[in-house]
């Protein structure tokens, strides 16, 4: 009997698992719980520039708990899911069920790649109305191909046992029974486990924000050139001039700098010729003069010169920043500005 118990303990220590780690409270707790069960944990962070997670916090959590950590980048495949989600949207343009299916499927692929035994997450039954209800969680498990291999340690006792539990490799009694939207049980557990550093619950994915969702919808409808272009959707004021051209106008120095950093080679940069003010990113190839004049008018409208005579605006192509040109701003009617605002 002693020998059999020792063998069982050895099996546990040899187990590998892939855990989705956002740096938030729930995923950090889940990683700690599974790690303390003697499982070798590989933390996976999905990089989404306008999502709800913090890569630095996730890395810090992985380092403190003592697990391996990798970053997987969401890309154009994810944008296609946002554009046409099989399971629909939440409150705005958030495809929560499809999002989890995509990420968990990729985590499952990584699980197979490293020879791990299961995937786990920090989900709590009933915490999210779209993706963390019982029927949604079951649907996600099936469609990711992880049936029996997707463990939710924070609420496992409310769900069907997974294969590692059935085989006795994970002790079900050491898993938890959290449910609902309150975070008090997690906060208390964090204190008990001496976990003090984690992302506080916040607004979540920007796709749940209606203003951001409108910008994303506009981008997907009019076309985008790569995933990187969507990063700028989180900054500035956005205006759709026509089907081929839109502008993003920085609201402060940090946004101005960010717009320059993430500009596409085909974009045009515009600023006031001789004064400090907003930077405008004109998206679209080879803008005609009337588009340049309207874009220049937006710069003047959102500067301290909005009530003065047309200002001179300088502009240049991102891929040819040595060819600086100038154009006079077109004075724009406020009603027109309101109609093109995204």
What does this structure look like?
The protein is an alpha/beta fold. It is built from 12 helices and 11 strands. Strands 6-7-9-8-10-11 form a 6-stranded antiparallel β-sheet, sandwiched between helices. It has a 5-stranded parallel β-sheet with strand order 3-2-1-4-5, with helices on both faces. Strand 6 and strand 7 form a beta hairpin. It is elongated, with a radius of gyration of 25 Å. The termini are far apart. The relative contact order is 0.10.
List the keywords.
single chain, alpha/beta, Rossmann fold
CATH architecture classification name of the largest domain: 3-Layer(aba) Sandwich
Main β-sheet: number of strands, strand sense, barrel status? Answer: 6 strands, antiparallel
What's the mean pLDDT score?
A: 93
* Low-confidence blocks of residues: none
DSSP strand tally: 11
As a percent range, the share of helical residues equals 25-40%
Strand content is 15-25%
**Sheet with most strands: strand arrangement:** 6-7-9-8-10-11
Q: End-to-end distance, in Å?
A: 70 Å
CATH topology name of the largest domain, in short, is Rossmann fold
> What are the secondary-structure elements, in order, as H or E?
HEHEHEHHEHEHHHEEHEEHEEH
Give the C-alpha Rg.
25 Å
CATH superfamily of the largest domain: HUPs
Work out the count of structural domains.
2
**Given this structure, which CATH class of the largest domain is correct?**
Alpha Beta
Apparent shape: elongated
Number of helices: 12
Coarse structural class: alpha/beta
